[in-house]
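Assemble and predict.
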Amino acid sequence: MVERIRLAVFKFASCDGCQLSLLDAEDELLQIAEKVEIAHFLEARTRALEGPYDVALVEGSVTTAHDVERIHDIRKNSRFLVTIGACATAGGIQALRNWANVDEFISQVYAEPTYIQTLATSTPISDHVKVDFELRGCPINTKQLVEVITAFVLGRVPRVPRYSVCIECKRRETVCVAVARGITCLGPVTQAGCGAICPAYRRECFGCFGPKEEPNLVSLTDYYKNNGAPTGQLVRLVRNFNGYAPEFKTASDALEGAAT
Amino acid sequence: MAKTRRIEVSALSRVEGEGAIRVTVKGKTVQHVELNIYEPPRFFESFLRGRAIHEVPDITSRICGICPVAYQMSSCHALEKALKLAIPPELRTLRRLLYCGEWIESHALHVYMLHAPDFLGYESGISMAADRRADVERGLRMKKIGNELLGILGGRAIHPINVTVGGFYRAPSRRDLKALLPDLEWGLNAAIETLHFVSNFDFPAFEQSYEFVALKHADEYPMNDGRVVSSEGLDIPVDEYEQHFSERHRPQSTALHSVRLPRETHYLCGPLARLNLCREQLPPIARREADACGTAWPSFNSFKSIVARAVEMIAAFETAIEIIKDYNAEPTQSRVEFTPRAGQGCHATEAPRGLLYHRYRIGDDGLIAEAKIVPPTSQNQGQIEDDLRSFVPSILDCDDAEATRRCEHLIRNYDPCISCATHFLRLTIERHASVDGR
């Protein structure tokens, strides 16, 4: 028998939704488990095999000193390291703390702030170790996850588009919500992958899949500003699940800077 | 002198999120029990401050990838109360349908992939599939149908995008929902089979004196609405929740966990509590099957939570079918529009794993000024530790591997969702050692 590739799933600060996407591949899951040795996947199985692993899927962002040590260990033990989701790739919604005073956050939530151990920032995995492939999304798309796993089994590059949500809207023949309804939509600067669901449900894209390849944030936010959108609203729109992704961060900081 | 023995599970598996258990036993006496949550805090309640009202359900869904709808529902209801919005009955019904989808996918995942392996001696649903492929495939297909329902109503299964304060961005089409009926009919039968499947498991004799807490509604099994009731006679509107329940931040514990006031006792919420308190509100097929399944209700054995979960899957399929059969006209408006205004509101709904309480204050600027979230797992945490304290003496003859396996099994009775527990934390127990010598 050909040796199966060894897959491991690891979690950092996150909602568990992206690793759940693997269990949500209901039609493929048992087949994947036959083709791939699922060596470490705590959410789904008790048996945890030691490394080295061929592919490590990493969910979540780095928010504690212990996390920093752990991600270095995982990197050492893995041939390919793939981040899954907005937390691992851009710091996630919890990266909103990066614009705030974390001590203030702690005292707002906890009666005994001294018990809390946390870093002042929530950062993506790539701030700490080399990442071989980043799968975007909040949450990731199950089909794209299956594609990534398949690509590693076959030893080829995963086919994941880098173009914008707009392309997906055109493909599903959704009328543009920004043009036709005056909605402040992030579709033009956001990477495809969700299937452009939000505009199809008559609402704005709010950037779950992060910045597309070479996005023009300035042009888009200027357009919305000229059409009367308040700066605060635009800052919040860009400063979201992928708000700490460099292109989005630069844009929200610039908007805020211009307003003061 | 009696020997001190430690039972440790450093990384709990088949739960959502990351935690550990530590039990210290001296002779036959349990000295210390702790469910240690090392899931790092994410501070949702803090960064919700300053966000716009309509952003809240999109953000709170990110607390938990397994039960995002629960977070969206509690957020929307609480904010609608703050805004004094009345939601038309047809939108309320669609919300109930959305909740059915989440109960189905979450319960199917837990019953088949996370919990059944404990009863049947497997380390995972994946290993179980080698011997019992038909059972696992039944579970996966039920889960998929739940996800499909979430997809139609919510746009996608994890972190739905169609839920908003006031209703939905777009009402689901009649045709899309009706097309799901054959699958839901199959699912209803599969859920009944599931109840027979789990009822045959071997249950440890573990009757405890619990206080069960759940929502209760006169006319329906509780999901979106109800009074907060308990098996000890509590019966209050949700607005009074914080007068009867409070969160504690103790050094011995590893999380904020809830207690009942004024006695500071623990309580149990989730499927077993709901079924024990609201069996009469089950829809007819679920009621009939619950009464015939061989478990006497109310049940005081937390290992029977898997039976309650199976009954609730029947109820969720049955309710979904009924709602879709009656869905003959799409609502004229999919949401109630609102103008941001200052106000305060709280609400609780029934997440798959128990009561989920939210309270918000909206400031004069129309943005969120304060948020409070009490997830089900922090409410169950104290009870889980009490259960371990009572359970461990009965397994002292087991070797360490078997003892830890059984402790993990007990914890999974609660389907703990550690990622959910927004303010679970990690702490240094040694901190107080020098003060009082502990």
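Residues 246-259 of chain A form the longest helix (14 residues).
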